[in-house]
Amino acid sequence: MFKNISKIGIDCCGCGNCFYICKKDAISLKADDEGFIQPFVNYNCVDCGACLNVCPQTKEVQTIDNQQAYIVLTKDANIKKISASGGVFGTVAKSLVNERNAYVCAASFVEGTVRHIITQDYSDIKKCQGSKYVQSSLEDCLPKIKGILKDKQKTVLFCGTPCQVAAVYSFLGKRPSNLYTLDLICHGVPSPLFFLKDLKHYCKHPERLSDVRFRWRNPMSNEGKSSFILSIEEQNMSRLYSSSYDPYFATFMKGESFRLSCYQCHYANLNRVGDITIGDCDSAKLYPNFHPNESKSSIIVNNPNGTYLWSMVKKNFFYTYLDLQYEAEINHQLSIPFKKPSSRSQIYNDAKKMSYWKFKSKYAAPTTIRQKVLAIVQTYIPFAYKWIIQRTLK
């Protein structure tokens, strides 16, 4: 049996730790046939095992007790406008930059792809807000974070999927007190290549797009709830597409296009790896008096570092206690990985071989008048009226 990263196989999450730790130039990172980044080992390998030692997928997830959970909404109206739900990341990042001059590492849309950046500039942080339904590249962020953290007076905030947060800790080999982490309640990630192919349908040069978002708030509505809308921004103009129309978005919503490791995710449970866990609050209906016309987030404070972080930033939120066990029952990625659909084995073959329109017809295009009307409702109608129209169409 090989004593190198090849041993991980389909459990690989694509973090890149193995590439950065290898001193023999024996590992390269390349996209596989589906467009997911994978490590490839060459003849320089001496089977030292360093790559396996730094791989987060080889580490056991620790059991966590005494978590505190809250349903929250930012007090900052500008942050709320561009957030997917309650504005947790943007508010925490802004607070730490203002109070600690912190470095923030999070996913941003850059030149046609989604990748993690490190910044102290709030204009960059704003581009990191909102859901990114594609696997982001960590690129060289981890060595840079390690370098920043050597100065104990400097603070870093890292936000990413649980496997990415685990990769940070595994790469560092410890949990520095000047590093704060937010792990996302993640359903799974499609491939960057699939995402890029979809964007090329809308724009010949995706690298020229200023931003792409998967959640949208209607600026003509006074309500604060976001919808699952693909928003493509180019030259100060936004084009909107319902999730049911776009094939990339539609297959994501059905969990058909995730990385294979996502279907056996080690982190899809309440034993969270980050200091604080953030995501949409699926049990918001249990709190009818808590900002009923707004999209809210849930946060889970997982450890002492998270408790300290929450104590610093909670003044910037409206919040109340959350029933964590009930939230985990209905927000399944807090209890179990997404079940692999039977269609998963065919999705990427079809995406590669079919024309865009044929693929769209098979996986996304509405086939009835009712579905088309619902798609329009999801895109343009204020939230308060959606349920009336949707109930009528059922």
UniProtKB/TrEMBL annotation:
<feature type="domain" description="4Fe-4S ferredoxin-type">
    <location>
        <begin position="4"/>
        <end position="32"/>
    </location>
</feature>
<feature type="domain" description="4Fe-4S ferredoxin-type">
    <location>
        <begin position="37"/>
        <end position="66"/>
    </location>
</feature>
<dbReference type="Pfam" id="PF04432">
    <property type="entry name" value="FrhB_FdhB_C"/>
</dbReference>
<keyword id="KW-0479">Metal-binding</keyword>
<dbReference type="InterPro" id="IPR017900">
    <property type="entry name" value="4Fe4S_Fe_S_CS"/>
</dbReference>
<dbReference type="InterPro" id="IPR052977">
    <property type="entry name" value="Polyferredoxin-like_ET"/>
</dbReference>
<dbReference type="GO" id="GO:0051536">
    <property type="term" value="F:iron-sulfur cluster binding"/>
</dbReference>
<keyword id="KW-0408">Iron</keyword>
<protein>
    <recommendedName>
        <fullName>4Fe-4S ferredoxin-type domain-containing protein</fullName>
    </recommendedName>
</protein>
<dbReference type="InterPro" id="IPR007525">
    <property type="entry name" value="FrhB_FdhB_C"/>
</dbReference>
<dbReference type="GO" id="GO:0046872">
    <property type="term" value="F:metal ion binding"/>
</dbReference>
<dbReference type="InterPro" id="IPR017896">
    <property type="entry name" value="4Fe4S_Fe-S-bd"/>
</dbReference>
<dbReference type="Pfam" id="PF13187">
    <property type="entry name" value="Fer4_9"/>
</dbReference>
<keyword id="KW-0411">Iron-sulfur</keyword>
